[in-house]
Amino acid sequence: MDFSFNQEQTLLRESVKKLVEKDYGFEARHALLKSDEGFSRAMWKSFAELGWTAIPFSEADGGLGGSPVDTMIVLEELGKGLVLEPFFATVIFAGGCLRRASASVKAKYLSPLINGELLSAVAYAEQDSRFDLFHVGTTAKKDGAGFSLDGKKIAVIAGSAADMLVVSARTSGGVRDKTGVTLFAVDAKSAGVTRTSYRTVDGLRACDVTLQGVKVSADNVIGKEGEGFALLDAVSDEAIIALGAEAMGIMEVLYKSTVAYTKERKQFGVPIGSFQVLQHRMVDQFMEYEQARSMVYWATMMLHKGTGVAKAASALKVQLGKSGRMIGQAAIKNHGGMAMTEELPVSHFFKRMTMIDLMLGNADYHLDRFRTLG
Amino acid sequence: MDLEFSKEELAFRDEVRSFAQQKLPAEIREKVDQGRPLTKEDQVRWQKLLADKGWIAPNWPLQWGGTGWTPTQMYLFDDELGAAGAPPVIPFGLKMVGPVIYTFGSEEQKQRFLPDIVSSNVWWCQGYSEPGSGSDLASLSTRAVRDGDHYVVNGIKAWTTLAQHADWIFCLVRTDPNAKKQQGISFLLIDMKSPGVTVHPVITMEGDHEVNETHFEDVRVPVANRIGEENQGWTYAKYLLTHERTSIANVGAIKRTFARVKREAAKVTSGDGTLLDSPVFARKLADVAIQITALEYTMLRILSQVARGGAPGAESSLLKVRGTEIQQSITELLMEAGGYYSMPFVAEHGKAIGPEFTARAAANYFNYRKVTIYGGSSEVQKNIMSKAVLGL
Ligand SMILES: Cc1cc2nc3c(=O)[nH]c(=O)nc-3n(C[C@H](O)[C@H](O)[C@H](O)COP(=O)(O)OP(=O)(O)OC[C@H]3O[C@@H](n4cnc5c(N)ncnc54)[C@H](O)[C@@H]3O)c2cc1C
What we know:
The structure holds two protein chains of two kinds.
Chain A: H1 7-23, H2 26-34, H3 41-49, H4 68-80, H5 87-98, H6 103-114, E1 120-123, E2 139-143, E3 146-157, E4 164-170, E5 181-187, E6 193-199, E7 205-216, E8 221-222, H7 228-264, E9 266-267, E10 270-271, H8 276-305, H9 309-335, H10 345-358, H11 363-372
Parallel strand pairs in A: 1-4
Antiparallel strand pairs in A: 2-3, 3-7, 4-5, 5-8, 6-7, 9-10
Helix pairs in contact in A: 1-4, 4-7, 5-6, 5-7, 7-8, 7-9, 7-10, 8-9, 9-10, 9-11
Chain B: H1 7-23, H2 26-33, H3 40-53, H4 71-84, H5 91-104, H6 107-118, E1 124-127, E2 143-147, E3 150-157, E4 168-174, E5 185-191, E6 197-203, E7 209-222, E8 226-227, H7 233-246, H8 251-265, E9 269-270, E10 273-274, H9 279-307, H10 315-338, H11 361-367, H12 378-388
Parallel strand pairs in B: 1-4
Antiparallel strand pairs in B: 2-3, 3-7, 4-5, 5-8, 6-7, 9-10
Helix pairs in contact in B: 1-4, 4-8, 5-6, 5-7, 8-9, 8-10, 9-10, 10-11, 10-12
Bound molecules: flavin-adenine dinucleotide.
Flavin-adenine dinucleotide sits at the interface of chains B and A.
């Protein structure tokens, strides 16, 4: 057993940390959040130049062949800065799909993604799907040599800026069948694609996507026709584990900034941190954080080994929901009114943590999934 | 023991119910139901309708517009209006400064201020908290220095709710910096139009403009605007704080928001059915339903004690703590019901991206974190109960 990091990993952490500390101050982030696109393309270029967008991909694909631990390190540090660039959406989630695609799809989309020239997002959720990835009403009908897509996707995180959308659509079967779903790489500017963009409560950008007779060539199928759900399910597990790393960074900031604030803030002539009720609550935060961190490490190692990944991802998601909620709510409570304002970072971390529970299935959903996985 | 209301009480309840059905404007009801903030016009419009009926200030003395209702009637009134989706009245004039003025004010102050509160012609806000004085309110440092017939006021009041609409603010200010903390405080009524008063918006995490910081720079306030004696402000304020606390748990409104979660969840597809068929979600709903019943009957027990002449004591702290926790659970359930559609940011008056109920679901979950902080935080309430009830 060894939970320490090697030298390369320590350097990687330092480099992400440095960028976040230098270029991602609270004010800078706020300005970005309010900007047109909601993030900085120049920043994305730096990410690529530093090699971060290449980490999870094999050397054969033009990547750095990094391990899940490397990805974890990057996301944990990005989480501490509430970084707005679509690293999760593009590199982890869409990238996870592309990693499993044919050589021709990889050449067309994965190479530019790794170089930082292509942004991508996964369009899987639908109005009635709730958290079931296999619930797909969007259809893909054979159309000459290719397909024609019709339907509506919702809450596509980072979809507004994406050059290419990974879309799940049904090539056969009924809306809730686990087979018959196919993943497509769809150029976001294709005729028939309409995006309604919005900000999310945690400061990211997302969109709903309407597809009307969108022509997609057969070459753009990701994985095998009809087997898209299994692929998406596996990628979603990887993505949850990466999201866990982000959440770990966020929870650390939430609890440590609460401790720091209660040492500074005085009422009744004493620091409020001297009140036992607040102390115990912060100890609970600490315990929840450590438990969540253990789960992130464990799930990351399971992913590295490639066994029991689905159960590990669901278990982790349950822990994140529980710990994130406790740590976040306690952070607000212990700060008092100050935590309610936009002016203090704590409310922003709280909002992001709250949304992470809703992403890719909430704690309740994954508790059920964990149970049914046996 | 008898769980039923009397025939007269039930008749009264019906009267309130039909009033709400007939008079509450549909647009306002809808906004309240959807958890959207009201505009000043909405709020004043509804309050004037209540005033026309003579029901705007039920707990006030008859001579100033009160109703002479029993505590049970008062409860039924709040409960029915809450259930009907009527907005709660803005408390600062009607529930806070009004009672202070008719209890401790001079005859002249009563004549001058009370009618405008009852008619909702003047909007009040509350200037107690300061950046350095929250739970420890008595440590406040806004200074008022006597200069002839005036006080000169300097300082900052934090968290002034809806001060952007306010014509007047009631403030606690320090008039004797040398006295013990509670003893050097006075209670002043300040015209927001006075030179030197500035209102600075504070945006809360859900993105709304509900609170402000109000700054006072050499603001001249006539001594005639002081309530009661100089340096006795704390006594008046304490009186007011008990008023604030008893009005915090509105079971009628809680039941309505809970019913709404059920109604919306019944329309959310989940698996082969709706969210209501999901055992996990349904259990959470059931749990909250039980908590609401416990709150309601605790409220009724306190009420019957008051009706028999007892005074509400530390029990009102119980209602505040439990009532606000339940409110928070309800906002959380609604956000959960919204699923991915709880993610879009929708501004105060913006359109929903998904189903209408999702527009403010996350926003209200975030906004409602405040309810266990203000009006005496849960920790402060528990301190009160441990002293007053448990004798610790
Ligand atoms: C949305 C909103 C609207 C408001 N509107 C108004 C308004 O209109 N007018 C107005 O005057 N004020 C208003 N307030 C202020 C409100 O009354 C204060 O926020 C409240 O008194 C708590 O003070 P604080 O925020 O400074 O927190 P603090 O007092 O700093 O408390 C921080 C934490 O310490 C805890 N704590 C403090 N003392 C103790 C203790 N002795 N034992 C155990 N725990 C303790 C608190 O419970 C809290 O968890 C508003 C606040 C909010 C958030």
